[in-house]
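Please check the following.

. . .
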Amino acid sequence: MHEFMLPDLGEGMQEAEIRRWLVQPGDTVKRDQLMVEVETDKAVVEIPSPVAGKVSAIRVPAGTVAKLGEVLVVFDTMEPQRNNVCWLLPPYANGHLSWRLTCNRFPLRNRMVV
């Protein structure tokens, strides 16, 4: 089981509204597949799945405000639980039209933001 919590979206943001879920309970997801779109006071952010597995539960429904560190979604997976290490990529980085959150893929010290 892997619980994914709302990560720190930067700029002192302490909450975000869940705009829409791109996955549903029972769906099988790949690592880095977009799973949810959230909105803060400053940006709309697409968050990818940090693991490959099956979505077992969505804890915060669309239209609801989630607090920093609140569990958003639970996965059934064989991958180990780890802390959410995330950072924002600006619009048009990697061909996306909106801000995108990248999680647990590269160590922070090696990241490069365009």
